[in-house]
Amino acid sequence: MVEGRIIKALSGFYYVQTTDGVYQCKGRGVFRKKKITPLVGDFVTFDIDDNNEGYITQVKPRTTELVRPPIANINQAIIVSSATMPEFSTTLLDRFLVLIEAKGLKPIIFITKIDAIDEVTRENINNYKKEYESIGYTVELFSAKKPTELEKMKQYFSSSVSVIAGQSGVGKSSLLNVLNPQLLLKTADISKSLGRGKHTTRHVELMEVGGGLVADTPGFSALDFDELELAELPHCFPEMRERSDECKFRGCMHLKEPKCAVKQAVESGDIASYRYDHYVSFADEIQSRKPRY
Predict the structure, then answer these.
(1) H-helix or E-strand containing 174?
(2) Residue 169, annotated ligand binder?
(3) 12 is in an annotated binding site
């Protein structure tokens, strides 16, 4: 019996990393009967046959699990946004943050292509950086062309298992290639007509970067809240979560309720109005979702 972590899943095979190397494994039929699908990131035990191929016998309990991408036991999510091409979007960033908060992961925000913007745009990006940092998020601005900045990026990967996420074309694969040139991940030029990159990442795989493991994931152009219930949404905004006890009504949704501490904080400028607008928009989206049966 051998133990290891699945670092790649491809065409029905699971590639399990152990202290002795990586073994190609298949899942036992018992998993299908129990409706258990081994995921990249899973800690597993497996048997090795005479041909040095493995058969997974057990999937150990998970600390975290994501559906898109299908991956387990991640402890932080690095969201890559770009300052330009595609344009920086607080709406898209907040969608990522809500989904990551809902999974109990630590979010870290990277804003790329800082070298490709003018002074006015740079000032706007700096203001957003300060606002997100005031909420409690870690935000880093950087250019992939500056080696000193890239060295600083590596510290965020050290000793962590991260998922890297962001809109297509923001430079996720390019960033990972610079941090670890041995990866040679495929990158695509920005489509000028679409203003975004083509999807280049085809499968989920954990790769070594900066002393940790990172999952490069397929680029997203849209994110929905299919798994999120309305009652969970206020907990996915830290600045609302910390004020909820000050609201008059327990379980306040910060929408139409009177004497709401969150709405008061928006009026006083203590909560950014665009963050609250996104919250209301996301709440509407969840409420208008078709029921699941």
Answers:
(1) helix 172-179
(2) yes
(3) no
Calculate Rg over the CA atoms of the chain: 21
Question: CA nearest 137: which of 216, 87, 76, 213?
Answer: 76
How would residue 273 be classed by pLDDT, with cut points 50, 70 and 90? very high
195 is in an annotated binding site: no
How far, in Å, CA of 14 to CA of 75, rounded?
21
Which of 86, 62, 47 lies closest to 192, judged by CA?
A: 86
The tokens of 238 are what? 């830290």
Domain 71-216: top CATH class: alpha beta
Tell whether 260 is in a known binding site.
yes
Q: Which candidate, 266, 249, 276, 223, places its Cα nearest to that of 69?
A: 223
Residue 170 assigned ligand-binding role: yes
Residue 172, annotated as binding a ligand? yes
Establish whether 81 is an annotated binding residue. no
CATH level 3 topology of 2-60 = OB fold (Dihydrolipoamide Acetyltransferase, E2P) (2.40.50)
Question: Is 173 assigned to a binding site?
Answer: yes
Locate 279 and state its tokens: 């919250």
C-alpha atoms less than 13 angstroms from C-alpha of 168 in its C-beta half-sphere: 21
Is 254 annotated to bind a ligand? Reply is: yes
60 known ligand binder = no
Q: Is 7 one of the annotated binding-site residues?
A: no
96: three-class secondary structure by DSSP: helix
Range 230-287: architecture per CATH: Orthogonal Bundle (1.10)
pLDDT in tens, 185-240: 554 443 343 343 444 445 788 988 888 998 865 544 447 788 899 999 999 999 99
Residue 113 among known ligand-binding residues: yes
Known binder of ligand: residue 25?
A: no
Domains of the chain, by residue range, sit at: 2-60, 71-216, 230-287
Kindly tell me the burial class for residue 248, based on how many C-beta atoms sit within 10 Å of its own C-beta (0-12, 13-18, 19 or more): exposed
Instruction: Judge whether 22 is annotated as a binding position.
Output: no
221 carries a ligand binding annotation: no
Closest listed residue to residue 176, CA positions, set 140, 196, 201: 201
